[in-house]
Recover the amino acids of this structure.
């Protein structure tokens, strides 16, 4: 077990179970270290109620995709390193249950987002870092916009300098 989340719900209850898997493979390559990592998450049940009268099944709806995967590849050699990360969210439904009688849009599209980064240690005290979030400037599936866990800010480039005293 690598992650436990707790919290408060302003309602009657949330009943949640899920399964996750993680894998990391590291090997020496060209005088450095190459890392390959994959993780996946799938909710098994996500039932909630605000009033304790009606139950809502939240699996696969907006903000809680049925399948969530992440992969990363990184390479470190001496004073520098680089990485690429990909995130996948399966297309959520508008609601559970959802039929053509209830709405025009039944299922939103899947979503991929990629991030890249790198660092360079000039010496033991000074490190430079750069990162590009949402590398391909991918927007959330229409018409979700900012609902859920999508990157709505677009491509961003960040730089940082760290100096240790």
């Amino acid at each position: 077990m690598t992650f436990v989340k707790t919290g408060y719900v302003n309602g009657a209850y949330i009943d949640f179970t899920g399964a996750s898997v993680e894998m990391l493979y590291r090997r020496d390559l060209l005088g450095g270290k190459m890392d390959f990592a994959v993780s996946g998450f799938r909710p098994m049940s996500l039932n909630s109620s605000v009033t304790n009268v009606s139950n809502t099944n939240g699996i696969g709806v907006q903000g809680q995709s049925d399948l969530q995967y992440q992969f990363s590849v990184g390479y470190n050699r001496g004073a520098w390193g680089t990485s690429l990360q990909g995130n996948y969210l399966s297309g959520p439904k508008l609601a559970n249950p959802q039929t053509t009688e209830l709405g025009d849009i039944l299922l939103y599209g899947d979503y991929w987002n990629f991030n890249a980064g790198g660092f360079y240690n000039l010496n033991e005290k000074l490190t430079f870092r750069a990162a590009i979030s949402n590398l391909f400037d991918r927007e959330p599936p229409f018409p979700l916009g900012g609902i859920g866990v999508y990157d709505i800010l677009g491509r961003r480039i960040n730089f940082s300098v760290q100096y240790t005293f």
Remarks:
- DSSP finds no helices and eight strands in the chain.
- The chain has a mean pLDDT of 84.
- The longest strand covers residues 32-49.
- Strands lie at 13-29, 32-49, 56-57, 68-77, 80-89, 111-121, 126-133, 156-163.
